[in-house]
Design brief:
It is built from 17 helices and no strands. It is mainly α and 512 residues long.
Length: 512
């Protein structure tokens, strides 16, 4: 049976779910909330971590990047294993392990161990996200209901992102930075109790054999390339980076050839020949890259340059995160009547406008323009991601939902890595080039101030007030110079995503 015939058969057999199906959706939102809260909290706790653990500039990036880097390498494998062994089983194992490692990360005594903890969390996180999205595909076979369920799934990401800074801010006002990593624990208990009761197990009825070589090649295709991009952004090009890229590209070619030759492949490469699938994947990657680049600098600007507390900084971004939630839900009835090649580009116009507003706002001593810009950005991202994720699932047969979901999540995570590595790296490079420090600072203090914005503010705390103000002003001006440039790059990435959606989705329809 061809892929198209398989999809048509699935649509013909679709049934609408009742209250039990919607209750299962609520349960599946718990791990999504867990992961999304963790991601947002980290962005807001980074200034506190910088002051407490004194990471280098590279370590600071790694604290953020370790999780998505490892996750990107394992998502395809975990999605395929979920198809084989059961998606609910992978979800429960992943959520349990994620919470345990989070507790260990909470008490990390130095940056190196925190980075290791983030990597360990990624191993279990790779089991969670493909499982939740693919379970939605198996539960909601009716496309109208599935579209709404995916909108709720995407909105929960945004709601978790909104909740993370608020809860994290409250914790940071009263406890050490490690307390934010303890939040997964209360989410784990209801998940373990309710998921076996309400969420039906699903798997591929005809799975292929486990392919250790394919698993290894999938990791070698992703991890070296993502690592090379991160290192190039921070340290520039080198022979080692070229070697890493070569290893990744060769492994990717070998992985594709192996999947094409396999009778039952781990990842059906025919999916990528469908415009609705490949176009939606690229939209996810580019839009997340731009969004994460924004989140990388916004927490530092609000807390360090503007002097906000963690809670106040989190509340400042709530309107934008709420806009993501609302637009993701509002777009559902629109997407059932209008082609995605129209809906997604129109939505992303709002995001591009938001980034341009950030570039124009950079350097001002108030948060109002930034808040408004994030609202515009959130409106576009929320609507575009709902439509693109639905297209990814609708383009894959139910039996392969785990692998298809894993590809979508891989695009998310690679976008996250690129957002931090490329945009964060460009921002760091501009900051260092533009920073003009006053004479008289010791070599060690000057080096620390040039490493990161947090390092400059830590140095300022040890200086007399007049000298401290000079260092803070110089660091803020240099940082905002980088923000202006990276925001324009973010706008360009969103425009590119809109063009890809308009041209590659072709006649794809979001309607049943």
């Amino acid at each position: 049976m061809t892929l198209t015939e398989d999809l048509r058969l699935a649509d013909a057999q679709a049934r609408r779910v009742g209250i039990r199906g919607w209750a299962a959706l609520v349960v599946l939102m718990l791990p999504v909330l867990l992961v999304s809260v963790d991601n947002t909290v980290l962005s807001f706790v980074l200034p506190e971590i910088t002051l407490a653990l004194a990471p280098s500039g590279t370590q600071q990036l790694w604290i953020i990047d370790a999780y998505p880097l490892v996750l990107a390498g394992l998502l395809v494998t975990m999605g395929a294993l979920g198809d084989r062994f059961g998606r609910r089983r992978m979800l429960l194992v992943g959520a349990s392990g994620f919470a345990v490692i989070s507790v260990l990360a909470a008490f990390a005594p130095n940056a190196a161990l925190l980075i290791a903890g983030r990597a360990g969390m990624a191993v279990f996180g790779a089991m969670i996200m493909p499982a939740t999205l693919s379970l939605l595909r198996s539960i909601f076979t009716d496309r109208d209901q599935r579209r709404l369920a995916i909108a709720v799934w995407a909105s929960m990401f945004s709601a978790g992102a909104a909740l993370g800074p608020i809860v994290g801010g409250i914790l940071l006002e009263h406890f050490a930075w490690g307390s934010v990593f303890l939040m997964p624990v209360p989410v784990l208990i209801p998940l373990l109790v309710l998921a076996p009761v309400l969420v039906p197990e699903s798997k591929d009825p005809h799975p292929g054999r486990i392919d250790p070589v394919g698993i290894l090649l999938s990791m070698l295709a992703l991890v070296p390339i993502v690592y090379a991009i991160k290192e190039a952004a921070v340290n520039g090009l080198s022979g080692t980076i070229g070697l890493l890229v070569a290893v990744g590209l060769v492994s990717a070619v070998l992985f594709v050839r192996r999947q094409l030759a396999a009778e039952v492949p781990m990842l059906d490469m025919a999916l990528f020949r469908r415009g609705a699938f490949s176009g939606a994947i690229l939209v996810n990657l580019l839009s997340l890259m731009a969004l994460v680049g924004f989140l990388y600098f916004v927490a530092q600007h609000l807390q360090l340059i503007l002097g906000m507390g963690p809670l106040e900084a989190g509340l400042a971004l709530v309107p934008g995160l709420a806009a993501m939630v609302v637009s993701g839900l509002v777009v559902v009835p629109i997407a059932s009547r209008v082609s995605p090649r129209v809906v997604i580009p129109v939505a992303l116009v709002f995001s591009a406008a938001g980034y341009v507003m950030v570039a124009a706002w950079a350097g001002r001593a108030d948060a109002g323009g930034l808040v408004l810009a994030f609202v515009s950005l959130g409106l576009g991202i929320g609507a575009a991601e709902t439509v693109s994720n639905e297209l990814v699932l609708a383009s894959a047969p139910p039996a392969k939902a785990g692998a298809a979901s894993a590809v979508s999540e891989t695009a998310y995570e690679i976008g996250s890595v690129l957002g931090t590595a490329v945009l964060g790296g460009i921002l760091t490079a501009i900051y260092r080039a533009q920073l003009v420090l006053p004479a008289g600072l010791g070599d060690a203090s000057a080096a620390a101030a040039r490493e990161t914005l947090g390092g400059a503010y830590a140095v300022a705390e040890s200086l007399p007030e007049t000298a401290a103000a000079v260092v803070r002003d110089a660091a803020g001006a240099a940082f905002d110079s980088g923000v202006a440039v990276t925001s324009l790059i973010g706008a360009g990435l969103v425009v590119l995503a809109a063009v890809i959606a308009a041209t590659t989705l072709g006649r794809s329809r979001t309607a049943s």
